[in-house]
Here is the input.
Amino acid sequence: DLQPLPPPEKSKEDILLFFKLYNPEKEVLCFVGRLFVKALGKPSDILRKLTEMAGFTPDEEIELYEEIKFEPNVMCEHIDKKLTFRASQLEDGDIVCFQKSPKADSGTQVRYPDIPSFLEYVHNRQVVHFRSLEKPKDDEFCLELSKLHTYDDVVERVARQLGLDDPAKIRLTSHNCYSQQPKPQPIRYQGVEHLLDMLVHYNQTSDILYYEVLDIPLPELQFLKTLKVAFHHATKEEVVIHSIRLPKNSTIADVIIDLKTKVDLSSPTAELRVLEVFYHKIYKIFPLHEKIENINDQYWTLRAEEVCKTNDVPEEEKNPS
Here is the structure.
């Protein structure tokens, strides 16, 4: 019959320590055993036992670290093998991680050469689901990133995934955790410091980001204003939506000049005006000198049409309010 084994005898001078072994080539940290050590003993006294636990040769040099805590931040400190366990403030139940001493001439490239760097990686690891802004319900791809990655790090990884040469042509938008939709405004170029800042929405953290591939680099685009203008021809029923992209300090007059190069007018001398429409009702006729920077075409429809040649303008259009 199976009988439980009694715990080993423990004196007041004994400390129970748990040991983990780190393999930097495989990026694996795993539990390998436990030992009672004397409080006044030194790590150098147990090196042979640790090499046996790990399957190393007896003369393998190893480095030891105390895994103090993982949350909210990683705390992992190197253990001096020449100090006593008590002097290193090791107590019952503490976790000691160890690994082969890194060799500068080994020729093996590893991402996380020591235990502290590996624990930081695990702590900040974040898998992000990327969706095209045009298809906000469908995941396009996933990337394993770090919460500490900078804005440039993130767009560079996305560009590499998409096979894009210029990461500056990537524009990202954060996820609204409450509406489960993209936020109305995209992330400005280098407008956040780290990936974590892109994912936090109030007190919640998302794992979704939306991306767009722009035709010009985002730093240039941010100095421009893009308006969608619905052009109503004087004699045709078809309404065509035109995208007008101009410097932010441009005026409605500049919009009209640009629009005239894109549309067929009823006559070469025809004049245009731009109106603000909401639910088929005219709310504003823009003066030519108005700046376009603060015009919002997300909630309002911008309508361009030819000005009547007579002065017979309907009274409600003269005074839309």
